[in-house]
Amino acid sequence: MDWVEGKNELLHKFSCTFLLQLRHVSSDNRLEDEIIKQHTRLKTRNISPTHIRALLEEGDTDGKVLLLIDGYDEYKVGTNSEIDDAIKNKIGECLIILTSRPGSHLDSIRRYLKAEVKIKGLNHESIEKCAMMFLNDHDMCDRMLREAGQNADRKDATIYELLRIPILLLMVCQIFKKSGCLPASKTQCIGAIIKLCISSTAMKTIGKQADDIHDLENLLCMLGKLAWDALQRDSKQLLIKKVSKLEQIQ
């Protein structure tokens, strides 16, 4: 928002920004072709790959170009040599911000990074503020936060850990507002969050709540097994032939 509203002078040095999502990268495309493929507006404006390459390597008369590379944890190193070169800061005047979930996959590229920033989620003050915005009731907010952090020596060992992530905080607030209490454990709370997501999606698509879906528990177990098999294969994708075995929800 600061960028859009012009409040941050530091960001004015960039004349344009490109977002590249690594989950959609092809192995045989050049970097500029990947950028155009993921930005439909560039196609409609007849901006050529040559122009993109020049911007990345030389910048622009109005300032540098910012390249946001998202999802390094979803990328297999060596898939695209130009992406690998970009991550190693071998692309001219372009400034690169690389996002990733934490993990050992970052060890091999840390020597190329000029800075590393870790996002740890909301602090207690922000959690209280956001919960109050969602619930709009001081007493309800206080009760929920007490329940989320009770019976534990460390707050990150309870449901409270989930509240550090804004979208999960919203869902936990919805669960508390609906039932008047939180599940007994973090595992049960995650289950309630999944059920809430299913209910929301099912209501939009087939006009049903999660409780109305036939054999929901078995369907979730089957989906969990598919996800576990994918993790064991070190794959971020589910096999279509196995997904087709899931019962179609009517």
Secondary-structure topology with pairs:
Elements: H1 2-5, E1 14-21, H2 31-38, H3 40-44, H4 49-58, E2 64-70, H5 81-87, E3 95-98, H6 124-135, H7 138-149, H8 166-179, H9 186-205, H10 216-232, H11 240-243
Parallel strand pairs: 1-2, 2-3
Helix pairs in contact: 2-4, 6-7, 6-8, 8-9
Characterization of the model:
The chain has helices spanning about 1-5, 30-40, 40-45, 50-60, 80-85, 125-135, 140-150, 165-180, 185-205, 215-230, 240-245; strands at about 15-20, 65-70, 95-100. With about 250 residues, the chain is mainly alpha-helical. The chain folds into three domains: about 1-110, 3-Layer(aba) Sandwich (Rossmann fold); about 125-215, no CATH class; about 215-250, no CATH class. The chain has a three-stranded parallel sheet. Helix 5 links the parallel strand 2 and strand 3. It starts with a helix and ends in a 7-residue tail after the last helix. Mean pLDDT is about 75; it is low at about 245-250.
Q: Determine the CATH superfamily of the largest domain.
A: P-loop containing nucleotide triphosphate hydrolases
Largest pleated sheet: 3 strands, parallel
The name CATH uses for the topology of the largest domain is Rossmann fold
What letter string, H or E per element, gives the SSE order? HEHHHEHEHHHHHH
Low-confidence stretches: 246-250
Give the number of DSSP strands: 3
